[in-house]
């Protein structure tokens, strides 16, 4: 999965169409996406593919869970 995001998305869509479950990982670039805008853009891209069945996001505090839930809402509405 060393291709561009677009190449990877194409591959994942094909796999999803074949009935395979797609698990999104490193959605926030291993914690490197720090700002709300960066995180929302990443979530918007992933959720907009229509092929990701679940995501794994690591948290260091319960506050981060609330933040990401809010950002997922924003990403889904835009």
Written description of the protein model:
With 78 residues, the chain is mainly alpha-helical. The protein has three helices and two strands, in the order αβαβα. Helix 2 packs across helix 3 (62-77). The longest helix is centred in the last third of the chain and has 16 residues, at 62-77. The radius of gyration is 13 Å and the shape is elongated.
Question: Which key features would you list for this structure?
Answer:
8% strand, mainly alpha, 2 strands, 78 residues, 3 helices
**Which secondary-structure class do the elements indicate?**
mainly alpha
Strand content: 5-15%
The largest beta-sheet arranges its strands as: 1-2
Residue-averaged pLDDT: 93
What composes the largest sheet?
2 strands, parallel
Overall 3D shape:
elongated
Order of helices and strands: HEHEH
Ranges where pLDDT stays below 50 over 5 or more residues in a row are none
A few lines on this structure:
The protein is mostly helical.
Set down the secondary structure blueprint.
Layout: H1 5-17, E1 23-25, H2 36-48, E2 54-56, H3 62-77
Parallel strand pairs: 1-2
């Amino acid at each position: 999965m060393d291709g561009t995001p677009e190449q990877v998305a194409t591959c994942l869509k094909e796999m999803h169409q074949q009935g395979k479950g797609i698990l999104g990982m490193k959605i926030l670039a291993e914690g490197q996406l720090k700002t709300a805008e960066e995180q929302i853009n990443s979530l918007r891209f992933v959720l907009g593919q229509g092929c990701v069945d679940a995501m794994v996001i690591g948290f260091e505090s319960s506050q981060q869970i609330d933040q990401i839930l809010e950002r997922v809402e924003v990403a889904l509405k835009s």
